[in-house]
Write a structure and sequence with these properties.
Length: 206
């Protein structure tokens, strides 16, 4: 998921307390997994659940918390499709006032290293929205999103920081243990949207 020109902030939590550290801590030949042993920063960041101020907004986000196996499907500029695998991890952090997630794309043909992206988003009680910051350190780029939970139960974030007038990222539940993530863009003010990627998430079970 080469985050379509810019993406997700790699603060890469070791989510050992949630039993998902094995996913974020995978080794590759050129990128050995860090030897992290219960550091204080993890305990300070992780939260057992959402803060009360998040209210009903937490219902949708709670469904995404955990570890997910991902089938990535990117649509290239020439119309061809690129299929890859990886994982998505999400956890409550900062006393439950924020969410952090990590995207991992497994090494694939032509790329021996994995790709790792992450995001932090917090709940703004005044606007009832989720300002979000995404950073792609490998390519030195960032993106700021705004948005939140919609009336139909989706998480939808939008930005103009990805080189197009408007990009929209959305999470859509397709079952109790499955989601679809879509990356779309619009050049007509949101009247029409063109699909850039559609990634299928299935909850990981050991």
């Amino acid at each position: 998921m080469k985050i379509r020109q810019a993406t997700w902030l790699t603060v890469l939590l070791n989510l050992a307390a949630m039993g998902v550290v094995h996913a974020a801590n995978k080794s590759t030949k050129d990128n050995p997994a860090p030897n992290i042993k219960g550091p204080e920063i993890i305990g300070a960041l992780l939260a057992s659940g959402p803060h009360a101020s998040v209210g009903d907004q937490a219902k949708v986000l709670k469904q995404l918390v955990g570890t997910w196996d991902v089938e990535y499907r990117d649509i290239l500029k020439d119309g061809r499709e690129q299929h890859r695998t990886g994982q998505f991890i999400m956890a409550w952090v900062l006393d439950g006032r924020a969410i952090e997630d990590v995207w991992i794309v497994d090494p694939s043909e032509g790329r021996p290293e994995r790709e790792v992206y992450a995001a932090i988003q917090y709940f703004d009680s005044k606007s009832h929205s989720w300002p979000t910051v995404f950073i792609d350190p490998e390519h030195g780029s960032t993106a700021k999103f705004t948005g939140g939970v919609t009336l139909d139960g989706r998480l939808v974030l939008q930005t103009s920081d990805l080189g197009r007038p408007q990009n929209r990222w959305s999470f859509n539940a397709t079952g109790p243990d499955s989601f679809v993530f879509r990356d779309e863009f619009s050049i007509d003010g949101g009247e029409t949207w063109k699909l850039l990627s559609e990634d299928h998430l299935q909850r990981h079970h050991d």
